[in-house]
Write a structure and sequence with these properties.
By secondary structure, the chain is α+β, with helices and mostly antiparallel strands. Helix content is 34%, strand content 32%. Strand 3, helix 4 and strand 4 form a beta-alpha-beta unit. Helix 1 packs across helix 3 (27-39).
């Protein structure tokens, strides 16, 4: 999972995040993060896509982490290894996230996309997501990463 996450960020965030930041991403640190995510009790759900037994994509979805309209659930991430872009893995993961949000009783969904990530915005708009015009500065990054909110009726 960490291998996929790091590879997806290094290619997907090129030109959006600093080269030094991307070069210094640590699979070991991401592995610890994923271990915490999958072993801690949480209302969020984690999904993987595999190809011949190797994980090629990761996704999480669950209750909103930010103020949201009633009934909203959040797709927290969809990351696919760049070697498997345009293979259907991302679509399968997104579909699974949306199915899970419906099962949890959500009637609409939202997600955040890094400003300038045209590959992601094209992917989501192709699947019916609409930008809201809302922005969020993710201050976990230095400098903060500007994100754009997208929504979808379930």
């Amino acid at each position: 999972m960490a291998r996929v996450h790091v590879a997806a960020w290094r290619v997907g965030y090129r030109g959006i995040m600093g080269d030094d930041r991307l070069a210094n991403l640590s699979e070991r640190a991401f592995a610890r993060r994923w271990e915490t995510i999958v072993t801690s009790p949480s209302e969020a759900r984690t999904f993987v896509a595999d190809h011949d037994g190797t994980i090629v994509g990761i996704a999480t979805a669950g209750p909103p982490r930010h103020p949201a309209p009633p009934g909203a659930g959040e797709v927290r991430m969809v990351n696919v290894h760049p070697d498997h872009w345009r293979t259907g893995a991302g679509t399968a993961l997104l579909t699974r996230c949306l199915d899970e949000l419906r099962l949890l009783g959500h009637t609409n969904a939202y997600l955040w996309v890094a400003e300038g990530n045209t590959r992601a915005t094209t992917f989501y708009t192709h699947h019916g997501w609409t930008p809201t015009g809302e922005t969020l500065d993710d201050d976990r990054e230095t400098p903060p990463l500007r994100e754009l909110r997208y929504t979808l009726d379930l």
